[in-house]
Amino acid sequence: MRVDLDVAPAELDAARWLQQRNLSIAPRLPTVSRDRQRRWSGAATWTPAGSLLLSRHRSVETGECVFTTDGTPPPGYALEFHLGLVHVHAELGTRRLLSTPEGFSTTRAEGRLADDCSFLGYVEQAPLPLLDALEVRVDPVSEQPVLVAGAADPLFETAAPLGTLGFVESYPINPRSAAGGPAEWRIATLVRRPHRTQWRHSYEVTAAPGAEDVALGGVVLNGGRAMVQLVLHASGELSTELVPLGATRPDVRALARWSLAPLGWTEGQPRAWAARAALGRGRALASRQARVRGIGARSGGATIGYLRREPAPGWSPLYCARHPALADQYVTRSELEAADLGYEIDGVLGYAIDRLAARSIENLPQEVKWGSRFGQRRRYVEGPMPGAERG
């Protein structure tokens, strides 16, 4: 990219040469290389600038503890607990944390340390919100004074307290979990399953989709404020508050068109299979296949998961469509696919997680016997219908 700086040429030859040289050098913008940003590499969580990670390590052989400010255990030691983050420099409201053979202490004094004294950073003296108390306690294993920080420390319940030295930023930073317990997202896969003898589809949430299942995407099992309930009804159909389930009786003309449609798929040539297909469809309408859609809606349903209410990166819409003649609901990630199969779109149930979905036409059954042209000419493009027409 070239940028016109609108610089007036210098009058002297030497000045013009220097000017051209400076303009030919690419600008060096102030930045920090990615490997120098601790919150992006080598750290489990964000760490404030100007801080050190105070850690406790235990000897593999003797059980004695040592403390470092870089998180790395010395040879022969294993990391036991990250106590928290201490300041590198003296700041208002902090005191210098020192370690000696007799134990630990804090001081406001600065200057050179004795040979048997180690510097462990600066600790806060005020109990600021979300900080952990840094205490001196007696280790039950080695019986030596050790540093203990917060209720998450494995020595918090067993080590005898001696005193409090200050307060440190927890690592990882507090709160470590949401109020009322950890908020863990639990997800499973919503699948569509064909029932070829009954000419319909059913739906299930499972951790292991079967060979004939089509994975529609991930659903959340423990909900949230941005979610809508996904309800499975006794009729085998799905609904959310965005697309409620209602009972509709197919129009007589739609039934006739669907029954006789195979006769028009012979490309102008009469074929026996078209007549058999039309006859089979007529028999299906005369049997249990011609049910009223939504029979199970009145008997309620069970919540099997949650979909996202609004679109977000990594989430895609699930389109709900109904068959014009049969009591079959078709849920798909492609509005175009549903239209090509002859289904009518009702709306978007919600948004499912992409990474658990089968996202190409190769993952779909080659035939849907009761669909338009038996499903053999359907297209699959995820998302809304391209263009304005659905034919």
Structure summarized in a few sentences:
This protein has 391 residues and is mainly β. The chain has helices at residues 13-24, 252-260, 272-286, 335-340, and strands spanning 51-59, 65-68, 77-87, 94-100, 103-107, 118-124, 131-138, 145-149, 160-169, 187-195, 200-206, 214-220, 227-233, 238-239, 301-308, 315-322, 329-332, 344-357.
Structural key phrases:
single chain; 391 residues; mainly beta; 2 domains; 6-stranded antiparallel sheet; elongated
In words, what does this structure look like?
By secondary structure, the protein is mostly beta strands. It folds into 2 domains: 43-169, no CATH class; 187-375, no CATH class. Helices cover 11% and strands 34% of the residues. It contains 4 helices and 18 strands. The protein has helices spanning 13-24, 252-260, 272-286, 335-340; strands at residues 51-59, 65-68, 77-87, 94-100, 103-107, 118-124, 131-138, 145-149, 160-169, 187-195, 200-206, 214-220, 227-233, 238-239, 301-308, 315-322, 329-332, 344-357. A 6-stranded antiparallel sheet has the order 11-10-12-18-16-17. The protein has a 3-stranded antiparallel sheet with strand order 2-1-3, with no helix packed on it. Strands 5-4-6 form a 3-stranded antiparallel sheet, with no helix packed on it. The longest helix has 15 residues, at 272-286. The radius of gyration is 34 Å and the shape is elongated.
